[in-house]
Design goal:
The complex is a heterodimer of chains A (107) and B (118).
Chain A (H helix, E strand, L loop, with lengths): L3 E4 L2 E4 L5 E7 L7 E6 L6 E5 L3 E2 L7 E6 L2 E6 L9 E6 L6 E2 L3 E5 L1
Parallel strand pairs in A: 2-11
Antiparallel strand pairs in A: 1-3, 3-8, 4-5, 4-9, 5-6, 7-8, 9-10, 9-11
Chain B lengths: L2 E4 L3 E3 L5 E8 L7 E7 L5 E8 L5 E3 L7 E6 L4 E6 L8 E8 L5 E4 L3 E5 L2
Parallel strand pairs in B: 2-11
Antiparallel strand pairs in B: 1-3, 3-8, 4-5, 4-9, 5-6, 7-8, 9-10, 9-11
The chains are: A mainly beta (107), B mainly beta (118).
């Protein structure tokens, strides 16, 4: 199985801050990576797929990057509605596997 | 719009079975597959398997394949996931998600809490 190592597990930030979350795949997944936002009691929401393609309706302050087997999610200017848990998921090879999640909290 | 609405919480005893439903709407049901995931308390998400709404083909996670079944009902656009021989470590929130033709999951259900306790 492909392991997805996500960091950090949590972070505190202020409105307007730039935030970066990382996921490292244990092998090449050829950008078959999605990022999700998850708020308690709600359905997870797709933000990006194919590592850097923004899902329809997702604000452009969200962006994704790639360097080898390292993937990043960047929020350019944190908004109040962005405080949530974020997780990555590879869909290159079944079983699909997920990062452990990053909880973004208000500083 | 695309919606996946899951059935309500379940409490089961060890050894019992549970069936969780995922009712879909807002798209052509047979054009997409559905994956199921779960998240145990304090743990990350675990993929359980996938079912094609087109022909009912399935792919299951190896560690669960003896205990899990996923089926579709095209008359109600609903997908069902049954887990048998429940153990306490099956306690988790279970999610369904629509899987696109390029395999990423673009819409999720709200989650169903399954508690296994004697």
């Amino acid at each position: 199985d492909i392991q997805m190592t996500q960091s950090p597990s949590s972070l505190s930030a202020s409105v307007g801050d730039r935030v970066t979350i990382s996921c490292r795949a244990s092998q090449d997944i050829r950008s078959s990576l999605a990022w999700f936002q998850h708020k308690p009691g709600k359905a997870p929401k797709l933000l990006l797929f194919a590592a850097s393609r923004l899902e329809d309706g997702v604000p452009s302050r969200f962006s994704g990057g790639t360097s080898g087997t390292d993937y990043t999610l960047t929020l350019s200017s944190l908004q109040p509605e962005d405080f949530a848990t974020y997780f990555c998921q590879q869909y290159y090879s079944r079983p699909w596997t997920f990062g452990q999640g990053t909880k973004v909290e208000i500083k | 719009q695309v919606k996946l609405v899951q059935s309500g919480p379940e409490v089961k005893k060890p050894g019992a079975s549970v069936k969780v439903s995922c009712e879909t709407s807002g798209y052509v049901f047979t054009s997409y597959g559905i994956s199921w995931m779960r998240q145990a308390p304090g743990q990350g998400l675990e993929w359980l398997g996938w079912v094609s709404a087109y022909n009912g083909n399935t792919k299951y996670a190896q560690r669960l394949q003896d205990r899990v079944s996923m089926t579709t009902d095209t008359s109600t656009n609903t997908v069902h996931m049954e887990l048998r021989s429940l153990k306490s470590d099956d306690t988790a929130v279970y999610y369904c998600a629509r899987e696109t033709m390029t395999y990423y999951m673009d819409a999720w259900g709200q989650g169903t809490t399954v508690t296994v306790s004697s």
